[in-house]
Automatic annotation (TrEMBL):
It comes from Pseudonocardia endophytica. It comes from the Bacteria. PANTHER family: METALLO-BETA-LACTAMASE FAMILY PROTEIN (AFU_ORTHOLOGUE AFUA_5G12770). This is Metallo-beta-lactamase domain-containing protein.
Length: 274
């Protein structure tokens, strides 16, 4: 069966190349997410295309291209094409890979490697990996969330350089394998962090947040937050890119992460020492 025609959950955007229980999406029935109030629904990429959904490729900032879906689908995240020596890293993934998106990404240099922050953004990673003949890097702590029939390259430990200048860092926020990507030369050479919603940019873009579940309002464990900040203290970054268009901290992102963690700890009644 073509990947255009296999089940895809429109609530989270994750595609299942092999059969799943049609009563439920494993991602949405987890306590971090939820099933739509009207019950579980399924669609396919072919049906989404017929319904008018399309890919969108545009610059997030100069030199950094984002890939999204219009209208919004699932969690509505956009992916990023992170450039550098050896080719682009596709950071995170989107649920719709159509012909125009494929052509535009090829024009921008294609995809040499795929790296996913956590299971909510696995989406159509199998189709992306097949189209661009790119390995899919998923932290081993989240390996059990990978849908059957999807081949990934699991990695372990705290860090992995997937391509020169693009380093995956295991923070463990949101999911056990929650990962961010450090782009050493990013944004005018000052360094950037592609964080998905492992470290999420909040509406007041001077700050970030740390959550176990966003829709169900379950906070991240303070020890997890402290560990994440310690790991990030070892890399240099002035910008931080969240999971959605425009969710960007510019200029003082490293300080924003530290002061946000301190504020977080204070508001759950703990000493804000990191």
């Amino acid at each position: 069966m073509s990947l255009q025609d296999v089940p895809l959950c429109p609530r989270c955007g994750v595609q299942y190349p092999q059969a799943v229980d049609p009563a439920e999406c494993p991602v949405c029935t987890d306590e971090r997410e939820y099933v739509d109030w009207g019950g579980q629904r399924w669609t396919t990429v072919a049906r989404l295309r017929a319904d008018g959904f399309r890919g969108e490729v545009r610059e997030e900032v100069r030199g950094l291209w984002g890939v999204g879906t219009t209208p919004d689908l699932g969690i509505a995240q956009r992916a990023l094409l992170v450039p550098g020596e050896g080719g682009n890293v596709l950071w995170d993934c989107t649920a719709l890979l159509d012909d125009d998106t494929v052509a535009r990404v090829h024009e921008l240099g294609g995809v040499a490697a795929i790296a996913i922050s956590h299971p909510h953004y696995y989406s159509t990673m199998a189709a992306w990996g097949r189209e661009f003949d790119a390995p899919i890097h998923v932290h081993a702590a989240d390996r059990d969330w990978v849908p059957r029939g999807v081949e990934v390259a699991p990695w372990d430990g705290d860090a992995l350089e997937v391509l020169p200048g693009r380093m995956l860092l295991h923070l463990g926020v949101h999911f056990a394998g929650g990962t961010v990507l450090h782009w050493a030369d990013g944004v005018d050479g000052r360094g950037a962090l592609c964080a998905g919603d492992i470290v999420t940019v909040v509406p007041d873009r001077r700050w970030v947040g740390f959550m176990y579940s966003y829709p169900n309002l379950i906070p991240a464990h303070p020890d997890t937050v402290r560990r994440a900040v310690r790991i990030l203290s070892g890399v240099r970054y002035a910008s931080l890119f969240g999971a959605w268009w425009g969710h960007v901290v510019q200029g003082d992102a490293h300080d924003a992460v530290v002061r946000s963690a301190q504020r977080y700890l204070r508001h759950i009644g703990l000493t804000p020492n990191l």
